[in-house]
Write a structure and sequence with these properties.
Oligomer: single chain
Helix content: 25-40%
Structural class: alpha/beta
Strand order of the largest sheet: 1-2-4-3-5
Strand content: 15-25%
Number of helices: 4
Shape: flat
Number of strands: 5
Radius of gyration: 23 Å
Length: 187
């Protein structure tokens, strides 16, 4: 019995346009878009009203601040900080403050949305918020961290307080060390 060899590449007919190799689409790892996709799936399951969906997909307030910080060597470094209040319909916003060198606004928005879902899931009378500063806290001295933290707090002061937004510390865990698609941190 004879065996027939399978062609390794498709055969192009004469006169046909040249074949273009298919390239896999680049994966979108934007944390906020991922959070919105997860929300859209849950909203579809719950059959939420379109107006309510749009309101719950969008952060209520996004604040970006410049944080001039005097370093121990005498130089002044201007860092960027964020505070995002995702939703305050259930009560004052609540959420941590992250210090990380790879922090992005979209990560902060995604974490604020996650805090909204967490507080709602356990029926707390709180909304969701998150904040952060783009810096490398492992390379900063305690005095530099203190000066930076105090300046960050003074910059976001107009939108925080016990009846508006309650900031709290955050654990130094980069997003890549989390389970994909969840808000659970890996120790």
């Amino acid at each position: 019995m004879a065996t027939v060899a399978k062609p390794t590449a498709p055969i192009r007919q004469i006169g046909a346009p040249p074949m273009v190799p298919r390239i896999a689409p680049r994966e979108d790892l934007n944390p906020f878009r991922i959070a919105q996709i997860q929300f859209d799936m849950a909203a579809e399951f719950l059959k939420l009203d379109p107006g309510l969906r749009q309101m719950l997909r969008t952060p209520r307030r996004v604040l970006e601040v410049a944080i001039p910080t005097k370093m121990d060597n005498g130089q002044v470094k201007v860092l960027t900080g964020y505070r995002v209040q995702h939703n305050v319909a259930r009560g004052p916003a609540k959420g941590g403050i992250r210090f990380h060198s790879n922090l992005t606004l979209d990560e902060v928005k995604a974490l604020a949305a996650g805090m909204t879902w967490q507080t709602a899931a356990v029926n707390l009378p709180l909304g969701g918020a998150k904040g952060g500063v783009i810096c490398d806290p492992k390379r900063m001295s305690k005095s530099e961290l203190e000066r930076m933290t105090r300046r960050y707090a003074s910059e976001i002061q107009p939108i925080i307080g016990p009846n508006q937004d309650i900031p709290s510390p955050d654990v130094y865990i980069p997003m890549r060390k989390r389970w994909p698609g969840s808000w659970i941190r890996i120790p």
